[in-house]
Design a protein that fits this description.
By secondary structure, the chain is α/β, with parallel strands linked by helices. Helix content is 53%, strand content 9%.
Amino acid sequence: MKINATPSFNLDLLNLLNIMSGDKTYREHHKDVCGRFYSILNPTIKEKVKELAEEQKTTFLSQTPVLHIASQPDFNYRDLCEMLDNDTIINFVKELKRVGMDEYWQYHKYPLVNSRCRALNEFLSTQAIKGIENIYICAFAAPHITKLNGGQDIMLDYRLTDEAVLKAVTTTHNPPQEGKHE
């Protein structure tokens, strides 16, 4: 079975929930985007995201919406807000777009993510791997590796090494929280 590594802007927008929740770990992993965008986000939106994190008792806010949208057909090519049902998350995504996240990702992150997808597709084509169909590569997924659609697909950060990706796609139980970065 051929595995397809592809960039996912929609999943990355949801990953930004973790970073903008104010959690120190996520902010450390993603200093560049946090430094660039956190201060210019609408304070009301930031407060709502923080409240959501407190309400859910986790700063890993992306997991539920990521799993929700990944179960929908063609989620990677659809409007994210149309697939969501949480007003706080919808408003957060709209705010990210308002402050220029689309352009930032397109010009600063997409080239890195897309290059990594090409390299991973080449590497993975030489491996005998069963069970995983799609790997959605993101710029803001660290430190998590998330299995989607019952383990059929996976989401991970573009900085993971080939060996860490191989381990993640061949592990049938809980994948490692984080692999070595390149």
